[in-house]
Write a structure and sequence with these properties.
Helix content is 33%, strand content 24%. By secondary structure, the protein is α/β, with parallel strands linked by helices.
Length: 427
C-alpha cells in the first residue's frame, strides 16, 4: 500500500515525529499532498488483543499530509475499512453521559426544525448504538441508520431503531432512495472523517437528499487539534481532518454548499457542518466568521504544521521521561480509558506494561484484552476502584471533567492525574 500512495519520501529524523518530503494525490481534488508528520508504524486502534493470540498484528504507517490546493488534511495511507469496522467493533457512543445528552439534544433540534413536514425522513450514517436515532424513533418519525459494524447495529435495533447493516456509498443511497424516498436530513457524527472514498458518499448524499434538505456532519476540528496539540486524535479511523475551508471546497464539487458551522466542545473540540444544495439556503454568518478565523490562524501553512509537529515531539519526550522516572521510583502508575486514540500515544511514545501496569475501562469487549501494539492489560473499572495508584494517566482526556468528578478518590487517597494534552501536567 505504501508504494501506491507515496512516490517519494525522505526522512530527516529517525525515531521521532518527523517532517518529511513526499507526494501523493489528494482524495478530494487529485492535487498534490505534502506530508508534514509521521508517527511511524501503528496498529489498528481498536484491535484489542486476546492475551493468548499468536497471530501477527496488523501495522501501518501513520502519516499526515495537507493538500496544496483544497487544503484537506488527510492520512497518507488508507487502512482497509473491513479491518476497522466489523462485527466486533468495540466503541459504544452511549458510554458517556455527556455524549448521551449531546445527541439527544441534537435529535430534538432536528425534530423541532427539519423534521416537521408531512412524513419526514432522516438517515444517519454510522448510527452506532442508536444514541441519536433512539430519540427520533421514540417520536415516531421515519428514520434509518446505516451502520456497518454489526454488533453496535444490533444494539441500536434493540432500542427500536431501524438499521441497515452496510457501508454508505452511492449504491447504498440508490437502494435507500428506491425503498424510502428522499431524506430531509442526512446526518453523520464522527463518521465522515473515517471514509477515504468520500466521493462516493457525497454522490450518495446528492442522490438521496431532498431538494431543501440538509446534510449535517460533525467531526474533530483540525483547528482544535492544532491548538490543543491533541495529536492522539490522529489514528487509523480518522482519515480526514476537516476545516471550514476544506469542507467548503469539497462540498462545491458535488453541488453542495456550506451554509452553517457550529463549533462544539465534545470529543476534545469538533465542528458541525451543515451542507445544502447550492443556492437552496442562505449562507450563515458562522461560515464567514469561521473562514476568517481559519485564514488568520494560517491553519495549513507550513510553519503552522511544522510547529505542531515540534510541540508534539516535546510532549512525547516529556511524557516518556516522566513515566520512566516514576517507574524508577517504584510508583504505581495505571491508565484510565482504553480509547481508540490511546493507540497513537502509547505506540508513538513507546509506553508498555513496564511503565503502565494496566488500563481501566468500562467497555466489556475490551476487558481482559491487551492494548493494540503496546500490550498493556485492560481491566474492569472495579479493579481501578479497589486500587490506590500513585498516578493515573488519563487517556480519555476529552472526558476529563466528567471522569475526574466521578473519580474524586484518586486525589483524596493521595494520587495524581497525568495529562498530556495540551502539555504534560501532573496534578
Amino acid at each position: 500500500m505504501r508504494d501506491t500512495f507515496l512516490s517519494h519520501v525522505r526522512v530527516f529524523e529517525k525515531g521521532t515525529i518527523t517532517v518529511m518530503e513526499s507526494t501523493t494525490t489528494c482524495r478530494i481534488c487529485s492535487s498534490r499532498v505534502r506530508e508534514f508528520v509521521d508517527f511511524g508504524e501503528q496498529p489498528l486502534s481498536d484491535a484489542f488483543r486476546d492475551p493468548a493470540a499468536t497471530d501477527e498484528e496488523y501495522f501501518f504507517r501513520l502519516a499526515v499530509g495537507v493538500c496544496e490546493e483544497c487544503t484537506m488534511v488527510q492520512l497518507m495511507e488508507e487502512v482497509p475499512r473491513e479491518r476497522m469496522f466489523h462485527e466486533d467493533y468495540p466503541y459504544l457512543s452511549s458510554g458517556s453521559s455527556v455524549m448521551r445528552a449531546h445527541f439527544s439534544g441534537l435529535a430534538r433540534r432536528f425534530l423541532d426544525t427539519e423534521l416537521t413536514g408531512d412524513d419526514p425522513f432522516i438517515v444517519e450514517l454510522g448510527c452506532n448504538d442508536g444514541i441519536m436515532l433512539g430519540t427520533v424513533a421514540e417520536a415516531g418519525v421515519r428514520h434509518l441508520g446505516v451502520e456497518p459494524s454489526g454488533g453496535v447495529a444490533d444494539r441500536a435495533a434493540a432500542k427500536g431503531v431501524r438499521v441497515r447493516k452496510d457501508f454508505f456509498e452511492a449504491g447504498t443511497a440508490a437502494s435507500v432512495l428506491a425503498e424510502d424516498g428522499r431524506a430531509d436530513v442526512i446526518y453523520a457524527a464522527n463518521t465522515l472523517c473515517h471514509i477515504p472514498y468520500i466521493g462516493s458518499v457525497l454522490e450518495g448524499v446528492d442522490a438521496l437528499l431532498a431538494e431543501n434538505g440538509v446534510f449535517v456532519f460533525e467531526d474533530p476540528y483540525w483547528a482544535e487539534i492544532v491548538r490543543r496539540n491533541s495529536f492522539d486524535q490522529i489514528y487509523d479511523e480518522h482519515f480526514y481532518f476537516f476545516t471550514a475551508h476544506s469542507v467548503q471546497a469539497m462540498a462545491s464539487r458535488y453541488g453542495l454548499e456550506l451554509v452553517d458551522v457550529e463549533l462544539l466542545p465534545v470529543h476534545g473540540g469538533e465542528a458541525r457542518y451543515t451542507l445544502a444544495r447550492a443556492g437552496s439556503r442562505p449562507v450563515g454568518a458562522s461560515v464567514t466568521r469561521t473562514l476568517r478565523a481559519e485564514q488568520e490562524s494560517r491553519l495549513t501553512d507550513e510553519a503552522t504544521l511544522t510547529g505542531f509537529a515540534t510541540r508534539v515531539r516535546a510532549i512525547r519526550d516529556d511524557l516518556l521521561e516522566l513515566l520512566q522516572g516514576l517507574a524508577k521510583e517504584g510508583r504505581k502508575v495505571v491508565g484510565y480509558g482504553a480509547t481508540a486514540k490511546s493507540a497513537t500515544v502509547l505506540n508513538y511514545c513507546g509506553i508498555g506494561p513496564d511503565l503502565i501496569e494496566y488500563i481501566a475501562d468500562t467497555t466489556p469487549a475490551k476487558q481482559g484484552r491487551l492494548t493494540p501494539g503496546s500490550h498493556i492489560p485492560v481491566v474492569p473499572h472495579e479493579r481501578f476502584a479497589a486500587d490506590r495508584p500513585d498516578h493515573v494517566l488519563l487517556l480519555a482526556w476529552n472526558h476529563a471533567e466528567e471522569i475526574m468528578a466521578n473519580e474524586r478518590g484518586v486525589r483524596e487517597s493521595g494520587g495524581a492525574w497525568i495529562q498530556y494534552v495540551p502539555r504534560v501536567e501532573v496534578g
